[in-house]
UniProtKB/TrEMBL annotation:
Entry GO MF terms: L-glutamate gamma-semialdehyde dehydrogenase activity; proline dehydrogenase activity
Family: In the N-terminal section; belongs to the proline dehydrogenase family.
Record protein name field: Bifunctional protein PutA
Sorted UniProt keywords: DNA-binding, FAD, Flavoprotein, NAD, Oxidoreductase, Proline metabolism, Repressor, Transcription, Transcription regulation
Protein species of origin: Sphingomonas japonica
Keyword flag Oxidoreductase: yes
Length: 506
C-alpha cells in the first residue's frame, strides 16, 4: 500500500479536515501567524521561549530510561517489532484528519502537503517493517566443513534523533521507526517549531505497542539537542536539518577521546539545479518548476533553487513562467486552493525578505501576497552565471541563469563544484543528454523530465552527498543496516574444537 487513502477530490474528507483544522487549539491559519503564536515571534522572543520550555523529560533521565529499555526491546523477535510498526502505520492513517490539521496549524502545511505527510510516514513504517523482517533474520555464511558461521544484524542501543520542522511527521517518523524496528530505543528531539505533531506521533506509537521507554520525546531548542548529542551513552545519531548543524554534531561526536565512535546519519541542504535544454517541453518545464520551487513555499531540501535555461529557449520559458506565477495562489494553508503557504516562522521570514530585498535589482518576477502573515512572495531572481549562487535559500526564491548549447557537461560540473549534492533535474528529449547527466551529476537524486520533489519511499530513496549529507538514503534498501550492529559468530563444530555439540546446561 502506497497511499494514505486520501483523495483530494473527496469532499467528505476535505470537510472533515476543515473541521479538524477549526478544532485544533493552536495558533494560526497563516494570516494571523505573526501575532498569534509565540513560536512565530522574533528571534529573541523565540530563544526566550526555547529556554523556558520545559522538556517532557530532562535529557539525562530520558537517555537513562531508553537505555534501560533497550535490552528487552532488542530481544523481541523482529516480527513483533515489525507488527507494532505496521499497527502504528494503521493508526497514523486512522488519525489522519487530526494529524493533517496539526500539520496545517503548526507547520503551515497545505492540505496536499499534509496528506503527503501522513502517506510518507505510513509508507516509511510499512517499508521499514517489511525490510527489517528479512534483514534481521540470521544469515548463514559459507565456510569450511566443521565450522558454522552466522551473521546477525541487531540494534546498537539508544539512538538520538533530531528532526526538522519541514517534514514534522514524515521525516520524524522515518528516522524513529528505522531505529525502533531494528531493535534500538530512541530519544527523539523534534524541531522546536513542531513539538505538538511529534508528541501526537509518539503517543500513537505507544498506543501501537512501542514501550513507553523505548521511544521518548525531549522537546526544546538547540540547547536540548546539543545536550542530547553530548550524552556519551547514545549509540547513534540521525539528523535532518542544516549543513552547519550537521557539522557541529559531527564535531561534538569526535571531541571526547573516551567516547565510542558512533554513526551519524545526516541529511542536509542543497543548491539544487534544474537544467533545461531546447528540446524540453516548455509547458512541462513550467509546471515542474512551479512545483519544485514554490510548492511548500520552497521549504524542502529537495526544492529547486537554480534554474538553468539554454540560451535559445530562455526568453520563451521565462515568459511562460512569469505568466504561470501569476496563477499561484498564495494564502491560508488550510484552504484547499492554496499553492504557496507562509514560511515557518518570523526568523525565516525576515531572513528571506532581507535577502530578497538585497537582490531587488535582479528580480525577473514576483507576485503579490496577502498583507498579514509570514508570506514570502514567490520570486524569480536573475543571475549572470551558474557560479553566482553557492548557498541555499530555504524559501520560495528561485534563481535563474542561462547556459550555452554544447556546454551541458561543463554546466553540470559547475553545479557539482558547489559541493552540495542533493537533487538535480534535467529537462531534455535527447537520450545522450540524459546519459551525460546520469554519469556526471554528483547528486543523490537525479530527476529527468519531471519535478524534483516528492521522493516516494521505496521508489526514490532520498538523500545526498557532499555538503548535502552522509547517506544512506531514507526510504531505500541501505538505510536500515546503518542503524544496526553487525555481529559475526563463528563456531568450530568439529570434535577437535570441542564443540561437536555445544553442551546444553539447562
Ligand atoms: C527534506 O526536505 O528534508 O522529495 C527532504 C521530497 C521529500 C524529501 C525532502 N520526500 O521532497
Amino acid at each position: 500500500r502506497n497511499s494514505a487513502g486520501i483523495d483530494l477530490n473527496d469532499r467528505a474528507i476535505l470537510a472533515e479536515t476543515a473541521a479538524a483544522i477549526a478544532a485544533t487549539p493552536i495558533a494560526n491559519d497563516g494570516t494571523d501567524a505573526v501575532h498569534a503564536d509565540p513560536r512565530r515571534a522574533s528571534g529573541k522572543a523565540k530563544r526566550k521561549l526555547a529556554a523556558t520550555t520545559t522538556p517532557d523529560l530532562a535529557v539525562h533521565e530520558a537517555v537513562t530510561r531508553a537505555q534501560a529499555a533497550y535490552a528487552a526491546w532488542d530481544r523481541r523477535p523482529v516480527e513483533e517489532r515489525a507488527a507494532i510498526v505496521e499497527r502504528y502505520a494503521d493508526l497514523l492513517e486512522e488519525h489522519r484528519t487530526e494529524l493533517m490539521a496539526l500539520c496545517v496549524k503548526e507547520a503551515f502545511k497545505t492540505i496536499p502537503d499534509a496528506i503527503g505527510e501522513i502517506r510518507e510516514a505510513a509508507d516509511f513504517c510499512r517499508y521499514y517493517a517489511h525490510q527489517a523482517r528479512g534483514l534481521l533474520a540470521p544469515m548463514t555464511l559459507p565456510g569450511p566443513t566443521g565450522e558454522r558461521n552466522e551473521l546477525r544484524l541487531e540494534g546498537r542501543g539508544t539512538w538520538a534523533t533530531v528532526a526538522p520542522w519541514n517534514f514534522p511527521l514524515a521525516i520524524f517518523t522515518g528516522q524513529n521507526i528505522a531505529a525502533l524496528v531494528t531493535g534500538n530505543t530512541v530519544v527523539a528531539k523534534p524541531a522546536p517549531q513542531t513539538p505538538m505533531i511529534a508528541r501526537r506521533a509518539v503517543e500513537l506509537a505507544h498506543e501501537a505497542g512501542v514501550p513507553r521507554d523505548a521511544f521518548i520525546l525531549v522537546t526544546g531548542g538547540a540547547d536540548v539537542g546539543a545536550e542530547l548529542i553530548a550524552d556519551v551513552r547514545i549509540a547513534g545519531v540521525a539528523f535532518t536539518g542544516s549543513t552547519a548543524t550537521a557539522k557541529r554534531i559531527a564535531h561534538s561526536l569526535l571531541v571526547d577521546e573516551d567516547r565510542a565512535i558512533i554513526p551519524l546519519i545526516a541529511e542536509t541542504g542543497g543548491v539544487n539545479a534544474m537544467i533545461v535544454d531546447s528540446t524540453a517541453l516548455p509547458e512541462q518545464v513550467v509546471f515542474d518548476v512551479l512545483t519544485s520551487a514554490f510548492r511548500s513555499a520552497g521549504q524542502r531540501c529537495s526544492a529547486l533553487r537554480l534554474l538553468l535555461l539554454q540560451e535559445e529557449v530562455a526568453d520563451t520559458i521565462l515568459e511562460m513562467l512569469r505568466g504561470a506565477m501569476e496563477l499561484l495562489v498564495v494564502g491560508d494553508p488550510g484552504d484547499p486552493a492554496t499553492d504557496v503557504p507562509p514560511v515557518i516562522d518570523r526568523d525565516a521570514y525576515e531572513r528571506l525578505m532581507a535577502y530578497r530585498a538585497s537582490v531587488q535589482g535582479s528580480w525577473l518576477k514576483t507576485v503579490p501576497v496577502p498583507d498579514e502573515g509570514l508570506f514570502v512572495p514567490p520570486t524569480l531572481v536573475g543571475i549572470d552565471s551558474v557560479d553566482d549562487l553557492n548557498r541555499e535559500w530555504f524559501g520560495p526564491i528561485l534563481h535563474v541563469a542561462r547556459w550555452q548549447a554544447g556546454t551541458l557537461e561543463a554546466t553540470i560540473e559547475r553545479v557539482n563544484a558547489k559541493r552540495f549534492g542533493l537533487t538535480m533535474g534535467l529537462h531534455s528529449r535527447i537520450a545522450r543528454s540524459a546519459e551525460i547527466a546520469e554519469t556526471r551529476a554528483r547528486v543523490g537524486n537525479l530527476y529527468v523530465n519531471r519535478s524534483m520533489i516528492g521522493a516516494v519511499v521505496g521508489s526514490q530513496p532520498f538523500g545526498g552527498e557532499g555538503l548535502s549529507g552522509t547517506g544512506p538514503k531514507a526510504g531505500g534498501p541501505h538505510y536500515l543496516p546503518r542503524f544496526c550492529a553487525e555481529r559475526a559468530v563463528s563456531i568450530d563444530t568439529t570434535s577437535a574444537g570441542g564443540n561437536a555439540s555445544l553442551l546444553s546446561l539447562a
